[in-house]
């Protein structure tokens, strides 16, 4: 669960928390109909340029753990599952009114495990991590640590109330790798033109 203390250094995240708090208060006082759908980073075809950088890292034969071996578990969500999550809420809208529901993949990988899964999908042999500088080998490395900073969203409410069953990571990783190999146009995808809102 996000909190002000965790989000104050991230104005983008903080604004989302404030919006959710406002909607919750309005729902309580005026019965304004809302449901908060909480998602971590979305990964998949045409979804997240950060993955393309991770895939490029592996493709160059670089070591598997560019984050320095933090070992922090996290969850992301497959782009193909986002619509499923929204539809699940809409189909049970009366029961989900006023709730904040987390959706994410079932697996809880570390960044190293995420990269190992990606390497297998690419049919690449993982290279053992050592002492190295990720940023010297591939530009814009820092945003990749964002995955580790996500933490592990608790999806138990979605599972219990909406029978949430996300696509297995191995399956969506194979689809994601294929798209980034053959369909990724480069750049920052569609978010590039509006990313100034983060600054």
From TrEMBL:
Coiled coil: none annotated. It comes from the Eukaryota. SUPFAM superfamilies: NAD(P)-binding Rossmann-fold domains. InterPro entries: Epimerase_deHydtase (IPR001509), NAD(P)-bd_dom_sf (IPR036291). Residues 11-95 form the NAD-dependent epimerase/dehydratase domain. This is NAD-dependent epimerase/dehydratase domain-containing protein.
